[in-house]
Amino acid sequence: MTYGKQSTRSVSESTGLLIRPNWDRGILSWLTTVDHKRLGILYILTSTFFFLTASVEAFVMRLQLARPEQSLVSPDLYNQLFTMHGVTMVFLAIMPLGIGLANYFAPLMIGARDLAFPRLNAFGYWVYAFSGILLLSSFIFGGAPDVGWFAYAPLTSLSNNPGNGVDYFMVGLLISGVGTLVTAMNLIVTIVSMRAPGMTWFRMPAFVWMILITMFLIVFAFPPLTIALFQILMDRTFGTLFYDPAGGGMPILWQHLFWIFGHPEVYIIILPAFGVISEVIPTFSRKPLFGYAVIVLSGIFIGFLGFAVWSHHMFTTGLGPVVNAAFTLTTVVIGIPTGIKVFNWLATLWGGKIQFTTSMLFALAFLVTFTLGGITGIMLALPPFDAQAQDSYFVVAHFHYVMGGGALLAFFSGVYYWFPKMTGRLLNERVGKWVFALVVGGFHLVFFPQHFVGLLGMPRRVQSYEAGLGWEIYNQLSTAGTWVMSVGALIFLISIFQAFRNGKVAGNDPWDGRTLEWSTTSPPPYYNFVKDPVVTSLDSWWAKKYPESVHADVDHQAEAEANHQAEYGGAGVHIPGQSWFPFIAAIAIFFGGYAFIYDNWWLALLLLGILLVSCYAWALEGVGGKHINPESEGIA
Amino acid sequence: MSDTSATSHVAPKTYRSSPLPDLKLFMWLFLASDCMFFGTLIGTYLVYRGRSLEGPFPIDVLDIPITTVSSFVLLMSSFLMVLALHALRSGNIPRFRLWTFGVAFFGAIFLGFQVFEFSTFVQEGLTLNQNLFGSTFFVLTGTHGIHVTIGVLMLLSILILSYVKPMTSKDSLFLEVTGLYWHFVDIVWIVIFTVIYLVEFA
Amino acid sequence: MSDHKGSSVATYTLIALVLGVITFLEFAAIEWRPDWISTGWLVFWLIALSVVKFYLVVAIFMHLKDDENTYSGFFTTGMVLALGTFVVLGFLFTLRSVLPVWANHNAPEVITGKDSHNEEHSGGHGIPHEISEETIATIETDGYSRPLQVILDTPRPKNQGALKITPPTPNTGGFDINFKPHLPELHKSQGPEVNNSSTPAQNGDESKEEAKQPISHNNVANFDSALALKSFNENCSACHQNTGLGLPGVFPPLTEHIANIYNSSGGREYLIHVPLFGIQGPIEVLGKNYNGVMAGRQMVSNEDIALALNHAVTSWGNLEKLNTFSPFLPNEVAKIREKSLSASDVYELRQSRQIP
Predict the structure, then answer these.
(1) What residues of chain C lie within 8 A of the CB of A383, using their CB?
(2) What domains, with CATH codes, occur in chain A?
(3) Among A152, A382, A397, A473, which one has the highest count of C-beta atoms within 10 angstroms of its own C-beta?
(4) Residues of B in contact with C71 (CB under 8 A)
């Protein structure tokens, strides 16, 4: 396997004390890599791992709920399961999957050769991976957090929750937040600064736009979460009174701060999914994206408005009719740009030559499932209805439809779409159709009944329920669905292995794609492109292949390329050097997390010292790496 | 790739879709995110203002004259910061070193004032967990203090580096970006001084 | 790299001077606070001055004014979001849940069921005297084109909770005219019950005498204390606890304080409002401050509310503290229910009656 092969023959510059790593292959090359493609793959693999752990947690919960009054798991363990399922899915599985796809493909789609700060990119990944390990380790170190993924105060206070579980929650999310934040800023700078010549803002692929908006959302939404987590940690460790009612603290402040983060978070999850769909549907309809500018602008609108809706998670907390009405208004309004996107995707399909590849099937399933989730969302936006449905399975059904049916299906679509590019192999389409049927069919079987059982009164987060309430059938259907989905997921994983063993070779452009990543090899060489891509229109790769179909000016394109070559041709390409320090810094933070949880201040101080030293070393070693001339380098 | 100042060779001209240096873009993004960060802290303080169940209350412990002096010191440190950047850009290395040291020194004085203020408050009975004022005040100003400390460290690092390795006006990006961070820390203090200290006595 | 070399040293020095002067002005305004400026204006000018300082540092020291707009875009977005979110958050914590335009201005009069002319209202909704019921009824409307004044003054339907409340089905278990009372025996040495129907306000010293005597009961009906306990546990104890001690800082205790309220003038009737409509506003109970929102329980039947009240008022030593006691009755609850108030109205009622 030669993907992501990094610079080989020449030893990279040493800066005296520190000899930079320069490995080609093997585990050390992965620990020190700064290549966005390798890091993207690491993100995808790690998030898949956490998907599996969260799915196991869900599987066990559903087994427990399949029949009334069962005791497969104790109530205490059940609480830990649903908390960790939520935390893992949101923070460790689905958000990083979007970030991983962004990491791999955003630079390729804008014609760049890496991110603006490659070592920071690596740091962001390692911090995320270690934070996930820390969170997961809570199961064996005294119990996972059992307070729900939103950890409402004052359940999280030290007196109400004396174990370490809540500390794991707070510290784990604080650490992972750091990684997410730096990666977001990294991607924004990349997209601003490193687009190909001629790629103006409105010639940028829709996926990249969605990623840009998502990264801005991360930049603004994570700080309130950081502060809220920090405040609870201070309450638990130093006895501050932020959320202590006896001292005058108001637990509802936690709800506000959490949801000020939490609502943009769900847009952080779904916007990359929207981006994937905006690439897959045009490709497999062989038509340009309908209303590209509108899709971009509605994405920006969603980004801004996403900060104005947070209290729709708090309709039943007694905010009052005026406040409730205001947030209903903003929530209903945010449905508009989302709906506009759906219509634009439909219009893209209309009149297109549809190719029902697995990727496309998942995208079509997304359209239906996400829209259903959006509709139940609008229902929940109305306080009179929400007061009935709050904390019932109706809400569970709603958010799984938008997160699972939305983001998950879109990312399945993205993986089927981009797997050939990342690995050079095609996934088996026939098997893919089975995966599609089982995953999508299973998904609906799990979550559609939950709407009804929720309206029949079944509350969320209950370890069991009484017999004779009429809830049994829905729970049984739901649990049966998890078996179906599991089979589908298993077949999916097997097909991944099969693709590596004897999958068909993909070639550069198996789908006759529209965007720049298809213009290079599969997988791309470590320098991404032989020649700097020069762009003169939207869907620039399509325009290059079929200039007549988009009335592209071939001469203008040739001239632009020639001009660029003349001015920048001699520059060569700078390949950033590998480095140990992102990994070391992340390790220091990882162990520092444990030190903080167990109140071991000397250890924390020591690790802070290690962190500082590695930051200095990181700054002093410089970018490193070397210059190459891709044309003479040859395609790897 | 973006070539930050520490590498030893000069990169040939590469195409960038924006003339703005990456590090500066990154720092402004970070500062924008820090707006939300401090906004949350100040917001928490304001939500809890007047809700402490027992004293000491702000009016009992806050000292306007002393805090005015420390605010003035921090403001002047910002002034020295722009002088330092100006000196480096003009190639006047000794001046640049002097002013950079000045910024760090003034920052340290500000931190000294903070430490003095914190210990005075503790002596007067205001601790982290005494009441809501204690919790919110110490966490807010403590976080600000940590930001100042990091800034002082960054400045001293640049200063020391300037002796180890010759620094020219081309290296001014690092100093400029550190300056941006420093000024931001200053303007957060402007907000804190007004909202927490002055308004309390109005 | 920015092409601008930045401003000149002279400019920077000038700005620094201005910053220093402004800081001194702020200090002076506080240290030697002039009498002629009100607090509101002082706060305004202090904030204005700090905005000037903020702008000077950002625009000139940080060079944002002369730099590319991208930076300004990033920073402004962050500032706007931060300001917007936390200003809104501040309002959420300070704004009353019902704005004055929606509040019932005449809450006290509504409670007595009479307006200032001492006439009974049939509907029970507070109708301002300025516009009489007949006037409203006769204004020609198509539902939309009412005069603005009428719209503003016509009270909105009170919040009856998020759901349409169906009238509770009568619970006949708790009240029975022929039922024998199970109340605790207070003073076994005493003889037959003394009928005590005078209000404490009229009694002065006598009330102390009477308080030592057995509490009498309304002869019309009694309540089943077991069912009262059940009703209290189902509807009230989740917050106020079985012990009636509540949760410090969050849910006020019902011990002792309820007895004080009951004994005060107008307190007994006020007590019926609280479980029905809730209450919202800062109160002090047994030396501790509470400032939360209690949701009303209009879905609970009149009987159950009366039972729960009876339990609260006669448990945990409260009964001994009462000057007099007559059990709460379902029809009393029903009458108050018609008034359809909000939690804030109940608070206003509490303040207007100076309930302890």
Answers:
(1) 162
(2) 27-633 (1.20.210.10)
(3) A397
(4) 20, 24-25, 28
* DSSP reduced 3-state for A626: strand
- The CA-based diameter of chain A, rounded to the nearest angstrom, is 79
* Distance, CA of C13 to CA of C140 (rounded, Å): 71
User: Which of C16, C61, C93 is opposite residue B183, by nearest beta carbon?
Assistant: C61
Give the containing element (helix H, strand E) for C175. strand C175-176
A306: which DSSP letter? G
Residue position matching structure tokens 């800082």: C249
Give residue A391's pLDDT: 93
CB–CB of A248 and B37 under 8 A?
no
B22/A240 Cβ within 8 A: no
* Cis geometry, peptide bond prior to residue A576 (ω within 30 degrees of 0): no
Q: Is C341 in contact with C110 (CB distance < 8 Å)?
A: yes
CB C225 within 8 A of CB C173: no
By mean pLDDT, which of A87-96, A307-316, C36-45 is the weakest? C36-45
Query: Residues A42, A221, A86, A143: is their CA dihedral positive or negative?
Result: positive
A151 and A165 in contact (C-beta within 8 Å)? no
Residue type, A466: E
The one-letter code for the residue type at A368 is V
Instruction: List chains touching C (3+ CB pairs under 8 A).
Output: A, B
Quick one: angle between helices A251-285 and A95-109, nearest 10? 40
d(CA B180, CA B151): 10
B128 with A564: Cβ contact below 8 A: no
Residues paired with C294 in a beta bridge: C279
Interface with A, mutate which of B29, B126, B146, B152 (most A CBs under 10 A): B29
CA A148 – CA A136 distance, rounded (Å) = 15
Three-class secondary structure of residue C196 per DSSP: coil
- The strand pairing partners of C55, in sequence order, are none
pLDDT at B7 over 50: no
In the block, which residue shows the tokens 């701060």? A257
Quickly tell me which residue has 């990342």 as its tokens: A422
CA distance A403 to C325: 58
| C-alpha to C-alpha distance for B93 and C269, rounded to whole angstroms | 82
- Domain chopping of chain C, boundaries: 9-94, 107-153, 175-185+202-353
**Cβ of A223 and B3 within 8 Å?**
no
* Contact between A260 and C89 using a beta-carbon 8 Å cutoff: yes
Written as six digits, the tokens of C98 are 């019902």
Domains of chain B with bracketed CATH = 22-50+68-201 (1.20.120.80)
Instruction: Write out the two tokens for B129.
Output: 């967990």
pLDDT tens digit string along C109-144? 322 333 444 444 433 344 344 445 555 444 444 444
Share of chain C above pLDDT 90, in %: 19
Q: For B98-110, how does the pLDDT look when each residue is reduced to its tens digit (9 = 90+)? A: 999 999 999 999 9
Residue A149 C-alpha, separation from nearest chain C C-alpha, in angstroms: 22
- Report the topology of domain C175-185+202-353: Cytochrome Bc1 Complex; Chain D, domain 2 (1.10.760)
Interface of A with B in 373-392 (CB under 8 A): none
Residue B136 with chain A: CB contacts under 8 Å: 242
From residue A503, alpha-carbon distances to A417, A423, A452, C181 in Å are: 15, 10, 43, 85
**Cα angle value C104/C106/C112 (rounded, 5°):** 120
Position A627 confidence tier, pLDDT thresholds 50, 70, 90: confident
Q: Verify whether the Cβ–Cβ distance C50 to B193 is below 8 Å.
A: yes
**Do residues A50 and A93 lie in contact, with contact meaning Cβ atoms separated by under 8 Å?**
yes
- Across the interface, of C19, C26, C90, the residue whose CB is closest to B43 is C90
- Does the CB of B190 have a partner CB in chain C at under 8 Å? yes
| Both tokens assigned to B2 | 């973006």
